[in-house]
Amino acid sequence: MSHVERAVGDLPGAEHRQTVSISDLGFTIVDDTYNSNPAGARSALATLERLGTGKRLVLVTPGMVELGQRQYEENVALATLAVGRVTDLVIVGRTNREALREGTVGGGASVIVVDSREDAVGWVRENLGEGDVVLYENDLPDHYP
User: Fold this and answer.
1) Per-residue confidence (pLDDT) for residue 9, from 0 to 100
2) Can you tell me the distance from the alpha carbon of 112 to that of 36, in angstroms, rounded to the nearest whole number?
3) Tens digits of per-residue pLDDT, 130-139?
4) Which of 34, 75, 94, 100 fits as disulfide partner to 145, beta carbons 3.0 to 4.6 Å?
5) For residues 133 and 84, what is the distance between their CA atoms, to the nearest angstrom?
6) Does the pLDDT at position 54 exceed 80?
7) pLDDT at 6 (0 to 100)
8) Are strands 57-61 and 110-114 parallel, antiparallel or unpaired?
9) Integer distance in angstroms from the first to the last C-alpha of the chain?
10) What's the chain's average pLDDT?
11) What is the DSSP string of the chain?
């Protein structure tokens, strides 16, 4: 391993990019709210799975935006991948709701639809406990519905 590879390995991670913490209720939080692109979302789902030791693995997301013509299909693909890995998918807001719901068809996860991030956080706090893991994937700016 080169000096550069060792140095890069010691750099701290960026905030809100797969940042892992434990809530006061004992569940693990993977905060990926500042990093939402197809490759990053797949990587975050893999992190969620790797950390999962409890009975619930939850993805909370409004989906991905600013992907141009690929936005709808990438959100369908995200939901399709997620429902094969998580126990619950919490869809936040309206921007990508249709695409995310389309991606859940035939999947094994419970699908919860909420209007706001605050509603999603409330659902998580009411339903998760010690050993469970939640991934917050993206947090849309206020100008998205």
Assistant:
1) 57
2) 20
3) 999 999 999 8
4) 94
5) 16
6) no
7) 59
8) unpaired
9) 47
10) 89
11) --HHHHHHHTSPPPTTSSEEEE-TTS-EEEEETT--SHHHHHHHHHHHHHH--SS-EEEEE------GGGHHHHHHHHHHHHHTT-SEEEEESSTTHHHHHHHHTT-SSEEEEESSHHHHHHHHHHH--TT-EEEEE----TT--
* CATH architecture of structural domain 16-137: Alpha-Beta Complex (3.90)
CA 109 from centroid of its chain's CA atoms: 14
Q: Which residue has the tokens 């013509």?
A: 69
> Which strands, in side-by-side order, build the sheet including 110-114?
19-22, 28-32, 133-137, 57-61, 88-92, 110-114
Q: What is the pTM of this model?
A: 0.87
> What one-letter code names the amino acid at 39?
A
Question: Is residue 91 classed exposed, middle or buried when 0-12, 13-18 and 19+ CB atoms within 10 A define those classes?
Answer: buried
